[in-house]
Design goal:
alpha/beta; 6-stranded mixed beta sheet; 4-stranded mixed beta sheet; 26 helices; about 55% helix
């Protein structure tokens, strides 16, 4: 039966689970495990949104930590959902997509390693299926598990018992498992990883045969069948001219025989129906109603009795196979998930990250959303970058090990993109999914992600500080990524606030990356060791676009690029007056310089033993 924990989870979303049998309980729990959102909504009688929420709560309970503890900010949650949407698009079945969309993050290192190992195995299966030329056939088989839309007129009657309902609701998936074993033959690369050896063809064939028998055992509407026959008899009698009694009797006999065959009547029911048809033969033809009612009543009682007997036999056969089907169906959806993840790995060259204990870093990382745009021809080639915060063990020195970093530099130079890439690699790792980099190491910890658009939405310094200060006051280890806090107040005050935040972070075990244009205003107030990284613009390219080396220089303050931006706009305009004004703006910027802040930085807390990487 369903554990009390699940009843408690349901109550959190104002749902009272009504469970009357062990079979119904297994049905509900099974649908939760395979993320069958629509099936669960129908079984429990709730909206699709509540069913999805119940599945998420169940997954959180398995991981032992609430998602809001790991992804506490709106931007962290939105990024997670955006990433899962990309992966889910590669799944073949609706349940496969839902399974990916309902993944929840964890901080458990062993759970993450286990999930990443499943990704490796999935990729091996993907490659083997592709090599064998069977990948598309497998995907089509998975697609066939989606329920076909039915109209009200074609809607099937409810199964006679909870046991039968359990199996009929999974019939397409049971058939798919059987088909996949047949497609792959004795190939161990699929059956050993995703399909248990206990799931043999004989057992599946017996289940499928039994389900087909059930499907053909619905009690028909006898009155409707007899009424249709009455209409057909009259049509034939009207068509023929000069029909004698012998021919009329033959037409009636033929149609009665068809009714008997359709309803599978016994000899007594057949004799009773024939008597009701031929007792008063006339035109227009009409069955004797009293005789028909008597016949139908006896027929229905027999049908109900036979169906009850058949149902009992079927339940005996099926009950012993529930565990087998539960495992087979769950493995089927896991296979769809694994192939979807493998498809992403191939399409975007994703890799399995290492699990660290002190920092986060990656070599040749790329923004996954820009990679998608590049694959669709909507953006230029994405430049890989390497970056790290804290200390990494499995990577060669990417950057001087420092927990706190300030990222400065060119407008439109990729600072926000780098911030998002770092957040992406961290969140995907917590979801036990591959990441967009050549190599990566991630230490599991909660991530507080603050995008620039989010800080603009806050709209006031008071609200921003009330949200941010508690985050930095909390001493628990976390990854904090902030984009341009300075938009909320004037530069001098913003510089002091940023410096205070960085000083506090430098005394903790947390990791902080803060994107800012206020290096000058901030540095004089920074009292503890931090790292300053810079992205530099190199001018305009032949297309008039900003040429930027998006790989940050470490221990280097990147200069802003207003002159290049103005030059770009000036070249793009044809209006003389507008161009003239741009020229005036350029002249006003000629004295603007950041040379006093270029590397090497003469700051007492920058280590002289660790040369900045160029």
């Amino acid at each position: 039966m369903i554990s009390q924990d699940l009843f408690g989870l349901a109550r959190q979303i104002d749902v009272e689970l009504q469970v009357s049998s062990e079979e119904q309980a297994r049905d509900i729990l099974g649908k939760i495990r395979i993320s069958d959102v629509d099936g669960l909504a129908a079984a429990v009688g709730v909206s699709r949104k509540k069913a999805a929420r119940l599945i998420q709560l169940f997954n959180e309970s398995k991981s032992g930590v609430k998602e809001r503890r790991i992804l506490p900010t709106i931007d962290s949650k939105r990024l997670k959902q955006d990433l899962l949407t990309l992966f889910a698009a590669e799944a073949s079945s609706r349940n496969g997509k839902n399974r990916i969309l309902s993944l929840t993050p964890t901080l458990d290192k062993e759970a993450i390693r286990s999930g990443l190992e499943a990704c490796r195995n999935g990729y091996r299966v993907f490659e083997q299926l592709k090599k064998d030329g069977k990948l598309e056939e497998v995907k089509n088989t998975l697609r066939a598990t989606d329920p076909k839309p039915t109209t009200a007129s074609k809607k099937k009657a409810e199964p006679a018992s909870e046991t039968i309902r359990f199996f009929t609701s999974r019939a397409p998936m049971i058939t798919a498992v059987r088909d996949l074993i047949e497609i792959c033959g004795d190939k161990q690369h699929l059956t050993s990883v995703f399909l248990n050896n206990n799931i043999d063809m004989k057992s599946l064939d017996q289940i499928i045969k039994t389900l087909k028998e059930i499907e053909g055992s619905e009690i028909l509407d006898a009155e409707a069948v007899i009424s249709d026959a009455e209409v057909l008899i009259n049509e034939e009698l009207r068509k023929g001219r000069g029909i004698d009694e012998t021919r009329a009797r033959q037409i009636v006999e033929d149609n009665v025989a068809e009714v008997v065959s359709t309803l599978k009547m016994d000899w007594k029911e057949e004799a009773s129906l024939r008597e009701a048809a031929l007792e008063r033969l006339s035109i227009p033809f009409e069955f004797d109603r009293v005789g028909v009612n008597k016949t139908v009543k006896r027929w229905r009682e027999r049908q109900v009795e036979e169906k009850a007997s058949k149902t009992a036999k079927v339940e005996t056969i099926l009950k012993g196979r529930m565990s087998l089907v539960e495992e087979a169906v769950e493995k089927l959806i896991l296979l769809d998930q694994a192939l979807a993840v493998a498809s992403m790995m191939e399409k975007y060259s994703l890799t399995i990250p290492e699990i660290g204990s002190e920092g986060i870093g990656f070599i040749n990382g790329q923004n996954l959303f820009l990679l998608k745009e590049q694959s669709e021809g909507r953006s230029r080639k994405v430049q890989p970058v390497s970056y790290s915060l804290g200390k990494t063990q499995s990577l060669e020195a990417v950057a001087p090990p420092q927990n706190v970093s300030m990222l400065t530099g060119a407008n439109s130079g990729g600072k926000t993109t780098l911030l998002t890439t770092l957040a992406t690699i961290h969140i995907l790792t917590l979801l036990a999914l591959p990441v967009p980099s050549e190599k990566a190491e991630v230490t599991p910890m909660p991530i507080y992600f603050f995008r620039r658009r989010m800080t603009k939405k806050i709209g006031s310094l008071e609200q921003a500080l009330s949200s941010l200060i508690p985050v930095f006051a909390d001493r628990h280890r976390k990854l904090i990524l902030m984009d341009e806090f300075e938009a909320l107040t004037e530069p001098g005050a913003a510089g002091r606030i940023i410096a205070t935040i960085m000083n506090r972070s430098a005394t903790s075990s947390s990791l902080l990356l803060l994107v800012t244009h206020l290096a000058r205003e901030t540095i004089p107030h920074v009292k503890l060791p931090i790292r300053i990284d810079g992205i530099e613009a190199e001018g305009l390219d032949e297309h008039g676009e900003l040429a930027v080396n998006r790989q940050p220089k470490f221990g280097h303050i990147g200069s802003s690029t207003p002159k290049f931006i103005v030059k770009k706009l000036s070249k793009a305009t044809r209006k003389k007056r507008v161009k003239a004004l741009y020229e005036e703006v350029l002249k006003s910027l000629e004295g603007e310089t950041t040379t006093s802040f270029q590397a090497p930085l003469d700051l007492p807390w920058i280590s002289k033993k660790e040369p900045a990487r160029k």
